[in-house]
Amino acid sequence: MMIGPNQPSSGGGGRGRGRQGRRPNSQGGKRGSPKQNSQNRQNRTGGIYSAPMDHSYRAALQGNGNQRGRNQRGGIGTQYLQPEPEPLPNTAESEAAAPRIFAFVDDLFFLAKITETARKLNVKVEFVKTEKEIMDRIGENGDQKPSLIIFDLNNVAAKPLTAIPRLKSKLKKKTAVIGFLSHVQGDLKMKAMDAGCDMVLPRSSFSQNLPQLLRRHGAPDEIPEPA
What we know:
It is a single chain. The protein has helices at about 15-20, 35-45, 55-70, 90-95, 110-120, 130-140, 160-170, 185-195, 205-220; strands at about 100-105, 125, 150, 175-180, 200. The chain is α/β, with parallel strands linked by helices. It has a domain at about 90-220: 3-Layer(aba) Sandwich (Rossmann fold), CATH 3.40.50. It has a five-stranded parallel beta sheet with strand order 2-1-3-4-5, with helices on both faces. β1 (about 100-105), α5 (about 110-120) and β2 form a beta-alpha-beta unit. α5 packs parallel to α9 (about 205-220). The radius of gyration is 39 Å and the shape is globular. The model is unreliable at about 45-80 (pLDDT under 50).
């Protein structure tokens, strides 16, 4: 029988040719299960699953890694806060004594913190604005020199880089000068040390060690024994 140009052939048509032209898969031409397909993809990528990771899962992994790193480096899990020091004895002599600590501080947060900490420890701290106020309290004989002067190095009105060397030259080594600033102000820290600061602390470290500093320098030379 003659086959015209528009008649289908007896070989099954184009549909059969399409099936014959398909590429057989690695499983002998049979389509595998989703689990098998996943394993095949892992084999082609060297055993690494390359699907995109969920963002929340990734954040959880990073958080656990950071926490483990902090613990291994002696971070939060191994740090211990210093115990609060015992308050000084509150006696008639201590009430009448002149303050041993002066502070050039106008920041409201640290002003309140120093005041509250000094109250708990029975320590006198006087806030001043000029070095003349300190020299007036010392007296002519200079027998009541302060044991500690605190400078907020960002207190522009106090002019700390100018006042510190003048106070150190008058009070000598009997008076310690401690300054505090932001931890990123490395240049100001070096200038304060050159001016005569005995110690320069970041704000956080100064706040943490404030009770010990006030207790040590606010105590009189001779503490009476409790009755």
